[in-house]
């Protein structure tokens, strides 16, 4: 495929609210949007539902030959995998937050604590706005640019709002972030620093979401990252899988534990592993995929345990807000992947979430948010219940950072002693 | 130098409170600790003041030949420069936080705003505990290990406490962090999550510091990162300079703007640039170094403007707490470097610090803490006052992240509108 990028007369995408003439290579080696249910393909553009069966669309590719060396010669961010993403080959030239290639830490201490022989933590808390959302938003931003969107936008309460507001500022795009008006002030500030266009909506998150869909339908030229450019956005999560494999020395782990909100991340890590095998970049081997939820919002785990495919929507009630999606769009695919691979889906209580946060901080020096506490806590439960094999190499994903959900553990930790400023007082304190 | 590492009978360091037989190569290619004032050399060990003249000791090396290719083949963290640091060649085998190799972002928007042709932001907010302190602490941790320290420790109010507590947890070392007892609860939590040995001291930061020095003098086997292993610790800041040069494509910038607290970071970036030239890794060229302070704690800037070498200690009164060192140990060297290179030292008000935070967030999508707001605000002032040449390639360093000092801008930003959850309400709001 030519990497020369220029304006062509390629027909614009025929659906959605954003239209432009696409330049050649606007979406890299992506071929089409393909329906996950019926396989029907539509042109690349701001579409997200199959016109035949309303199934979800995802990006399909005609991949070129890609070598480990080419990838290793790329930048220390997600664009080292640009040949495998729906982005143009000159993506590095467009200002973006340059997320990814985060740490994969071998977790000796946590492994010892849990009785797992070989354990790794993939730590996405060190992304530009401190969550894995920077990956997906970077891919959505590229799509928004190539589709000539006028406005970059999202509805969100947390990590996504931060990531969109930051990426939009860096790209110099008009960026509108919709939040529920009762969102805590610190979380508002963490998005409002980046944009003049933070909009508070009197309603709950569902109301905010519905408003976003309405605007996406009514307005021309809006790119809502998780609505009308969602297929491009979702592909960003594949980079977590690519990085895990590359950082392990170009091989797949035996087991991987991933938090489940919409379920998109888990399905994309699995997709990434399969792509790497298909491309000959890693050896084929069996691996088990595990999903983690908080009990207060565990529709996928409930369905898994009931042995059914029917996911019953729930009203979330958990401190793990960034996992609190009561009706997860990709839940059905999560069930399929976890069952087919020999993994499982498990859930834990909010107290166990808090324990998970402290366990990871105390053992590996990683301060995670409630989503990460959920994943680590579920890892522990999976071992204890015999669902995860502690003799197999395991990777657990941390998706965000603890400063964003400080309250979750604020009452659980503190000074061991308060002393007068003297050596004698320190000795007398018995701290050591 | 042999890279075979084994126990030898090399004499232990003769000063300080931590003693052990050093293994060969414990400090890599470091040769000795050399006095910055008189040049007197002492053995590598837990010493920080010259026994001859009480000048500060810093690490001296016998560097091997190092190539760009060897460095590029290393990990995406500071250990890619291990041959240039006082660490053993097997440093990657010892659990540490793996900091560094953070983003160097070309700042088109901020450059345009300030009228600077070519501007880069070196963004250290994406380190493991979200500040540059992870770099220095990783080097201190290695020294503590090689010296067989029993306890890893620091006095701190902020970023350093976080970095030490996290690194100590990951290393599995007993870690004690001393803080003033009146430190705000969220800042306490951000260290207490990692360690059971947070000690609150009834007193101000000076009292806490004095207590730390007292314990370092009385106790065997304590490694206080910024006291008795300070020479090793300080070397970690060199990696900021190495990375800037490598990420620019192995060349030096024309101008670099660096915050000044103790002044150590600025002197080490300069040292790094000179080492790269000496090693033939970059071409020699003139570069100007600029220091940034907040007016409420600007002893170095005051001395610079007065044209004197006498730095008069001050009592800090600024929101830029992580720069609030009233009696900066390396201030005199900062003056020398900035004057000799044709740079300058400048300071700005707390309101300008807040402006700097928002300016960086709005233009580049980077949410920095007050220290970064200081540096960006000073950059602006340097251009406006004609002290910095806007036609020369410039790098500005961001040392930390905004969630840690959220209050600084909490009253300055917020929603543009609060609306009912309907499309009509959005249109009527006039947000766009």
TrEMBL record, chains A, B:
GO molecular function: threonine synthase activity
Domain (Tryptophan synthase beta chain-like PALP): residue spans on this chain: 99-400
Keyword Kinase (UniProt): no
Keyword Lyase: yes
Enzyme Commission number(s) of this protein: 4.2.3.1
PANTHER family registered for this protein in UniProt: L-THREONINE DEHYDRATASE CATABOLIC TDCB (PTHR48078:SF6), THREONINE DEHYDRATASE, MITOCHONDRIAL-RELATED (PTHR48078)
The name this protein goes by in its record: Threonine synthase
């Amino acid at each position: 495929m030519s990497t020369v990028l220029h304006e062509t007369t390629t027909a614009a995408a025929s659906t959605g609210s954003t239209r432009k003439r696409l330049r050649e290579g606007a979406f890299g080696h992506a071929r089409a949007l393909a329906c996950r249910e019926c396989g029907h393909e539509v042109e690349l553009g701001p579409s997200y539902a199959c016109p035949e069966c309303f199934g979800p669309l995802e990006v399909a590719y005609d991949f070129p030959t890609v070598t480990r060396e080419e990838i290793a010669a790329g930048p220390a961010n997600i664009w080292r995998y640009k040949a495998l993403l729906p982005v143009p080959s000159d993506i590095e030239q467009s200002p973006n937050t340059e997320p990814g290639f985060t740490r994969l830490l071998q977790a000796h201490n946590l492994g010892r604590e849990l009785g797992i022989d070989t354990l790794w933590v993939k730590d996405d808390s060190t992304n530009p706005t401190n969550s894995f959302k920077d990956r997906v938003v970077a891919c959505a931003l590229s799509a928004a640019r190539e589709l000539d969107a006028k406005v970059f936008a999202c509805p969100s309460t947390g990590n996504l709002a931060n990531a969109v507001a930051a990426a939009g500022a860096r790209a110099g795009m008009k960026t509108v972030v919709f939040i529920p008006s009762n969102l805590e002030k610190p979380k508002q500030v963490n998005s409002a620093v980046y944009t003049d266009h933070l909009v508070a909506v009197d309603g709950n998150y569902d109301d905010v979401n519905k408003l976003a869909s309405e605007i996406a339908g009514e307005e021309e030229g809006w790119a809502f990252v998780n609505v009308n450019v969602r297929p491009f956005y979702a592909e960003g999560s594949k980079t977590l899988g690519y990085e895990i494999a590359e950082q392990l020395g170009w091989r797949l782990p035996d087991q991987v534990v991933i938090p489940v909100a919409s379920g998109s991340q888990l399905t994309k890590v699995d997709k990434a592993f399969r792509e790497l095998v298909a491309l000959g970049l890693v050896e084929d081997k069996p691996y088990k995929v595990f999903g983690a939820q908080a009990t207060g919002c565990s529709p996928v785990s409930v369905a898994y345990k009931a042995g059914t495919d029917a996911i019953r929507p729930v009203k979330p009630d958990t401190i793990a807000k960034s996992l609190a999606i009561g009706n997860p769009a990709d839940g059905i695919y999560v069930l399929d992947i976890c069952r087919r691979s020999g993994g499982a889906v498990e859930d834990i209580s909010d107290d166990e979430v808090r324990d998970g946060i402290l366990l990871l901080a105390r053992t590996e020096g990683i301060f995670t948010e409630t989503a990460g506490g959920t994943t680590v806590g579920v890892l522990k439960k999976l071992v204890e219940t015999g669902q995860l094999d502690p003799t197999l190499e395991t990777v657990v994903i941390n998706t965000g950072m603890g400063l964003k959900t400080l309250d979750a553990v604020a009452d659980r930790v503190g000074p061991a002693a308060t002393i007068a400023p003297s050596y004698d007082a320190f000795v007398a304190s018995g701290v050591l």
